Please model this.
Amino acid sequence: MSAPAQVLVIGASRGLGLGFVDHYLAQGAAVTATVRDDAAEARLRARGVAVERLDLLDPQAIGQMGERIQSQRFSLVILNAGVTGPRGSDLRAGVERAQFDRVMHTNVHAALVLAAPLTAALAATRGTLVFLTSRMGSIAGAASSGSALYRVSKAAENMVARLAHLDAVRQQVRVLALHPGWVRTDMGGQGADIDVATSIAGMAGVIADPVRYPSGGFYDYRGESIEW
Model:
């Protein structure tokens, strides 16, 4: 499969989102990306990226972007933005309402609102919609209640991805849920297993191979299937 011509990365200020931007720029794609702050916008514009400002905690901004995006045309969209919430929390510790709202609005609400318009923006090219999720959202694979809020949010995002696949089939749009691995980013920390380049190269390989990795699948950066 040739490199996608028009790529949208939602959540590209740093880490994996920025890694996807650089990867597809190097492949010759025209890249559009969303950021939240001036410094990130300047960084991306210097790379030749078309930049949109988007705060996933602003429901009005998400709705407005959904309205704009559905009339545009992309061949690949990566919904990358996400937050972890309180680290090390479990069910016994409870969850504060403010933490719940921040994590669920960022990780789940945006995916729910944007899934349909993003699919519409991919229909003309029969493109690919990627939800960057996590193995920690696997219900079958859950082995502890640590990071409970993050796990719950990613399980919900996985469901959004699965439902998006069921709808997108009609428009021949491919939908994937991808686990990037435990990556050395601000979110993953410096003690994580792999670097950004390794994670991005692996996920890009999965994205580029619709025969081995068909729509509706949940895969890690090595191309291994993950139980929902």
